[in-house]
Amino acid sequence: MKRKHYLRIVSIIAAAGLLGAGTLVVVNQSKVSPQAIASSVVRTPELMERAWRLPVAATFNGQLTWQSNASRCGPAAVANVYRSLGEATSTEGEVLAGTGRCWTGLCILGLTLDELADVARANTSRKVTVLRDLSEEQFRDHVRRSNDPSRRYIVNFSREQIFGAGHGHHSPIGGYLETEDLVFILDVNNSYQPWLVERTRLFAAVNTLDGNKKRGLLLIE
Q: Closest Cα partner for 165 from 35, 65, 16, 69?
């Protein structure tokens, strides 16, 4: 089968709603209305302003590069994290280079947390650690450390647990407002954009299965 014809078939299948094992995404992933998104998370201007001033969030300079399509949240999350760290690898394409992943332009079956870790390690010398099967206490400890400028966390969570619909997703954590117990999620999907959520609700969204493994965190340092 010619590659061009194959890619056309792949695009049709993806657009029709092929669910992935890792991030469980499709090309038209978001079925959550803007009103439902707004009512599900915290975006109070004063709190968002404070969140963007957190030590790690500040390294993103108030901006994100949005994922290029609904299947590539993982590579986009890594690219944004590396940009914040001053790494030369700072685009989806550079992150994916040489990995053999998402070569069609789509991560058709999504990327699991372990697969994303492999992608994150491919073009950097930084240490990348998968953190899963976390207790709520362990999760809280890592969230607290997300304000450490030497560390970056990417969270893999189920949107359904927070927004009432949607599938798995990867995005960087921008930091933690400890007094309010709110985690700052730098959502790489332009339909959602950054938001704050209660730590316990985020833990519930992380403490879900992706296949036969729990979701979790990537720690990059």
A: 35
